[in-house]
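## retry 2 of 3
previous attempt timed out at serialization; input unchanged, resubmitting
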Amino acid sequence: MATGPRYHVAFRRRRQGRTDYRMRKKLITSGLPRAVVRCTSKNTIVQFVNFKPQGDAVIAAATTKELGKLGWKHATGNLPSAYLAGFMAGKRASKAGVEKAVLDMGLKPPKKGTKVFAALKGMLDAGIDIPHSDEVLPSDERISGSHINAEVPKMFESISSKIKEA
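## retry succeeded, writing output
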C-alpha cells in the first residue's frame, strides 16, 4: 500500500465498489426524493428516499417479495414483477405526497429494457414524475409477461388491479 503525505485513502464504500459519490452528490443536490431501484437475481427493491444529514430517510418502499401476499405465484426476478414492485412503491409514495423524483440506479449500467426500467415504468404509471427517455422503457408485451408463458399476463392484470384498488 502506498504511503506518504500525498496519499489519500478513498472512502470505504468507494473502495468496496458500492457507492459512486459524485453521482450521489448530483442526485442529492437536485433537491428531489430519489427513486432507488436495486435488482438482485431473485428480487427487485424499490424505495423513495429523502436525504437528511443524519442519514437517508425512506418515504415509501416495495419489494417483489410482497407480491406473494397479493397472489403472485411466478418468479420474482423478472420484468413483470419488477414493474409491479415499482407500481406498488409509486402508489405508496404518491399517498405520502411525493409528486416528483429522480431515478437512482446505483452502479448498474443503463441498458435498454432492463428490470430497472421496468420498475421505472411502474412508478411512472403510478403517477410519479421522473425524468426519463421513452427509448429505455421495455415494451408492453415484455412488461405484461407474455414472453414468459400464457398464465403470467392474466396474473399480472389481477395483481395490478389489486394494487390500483389499495
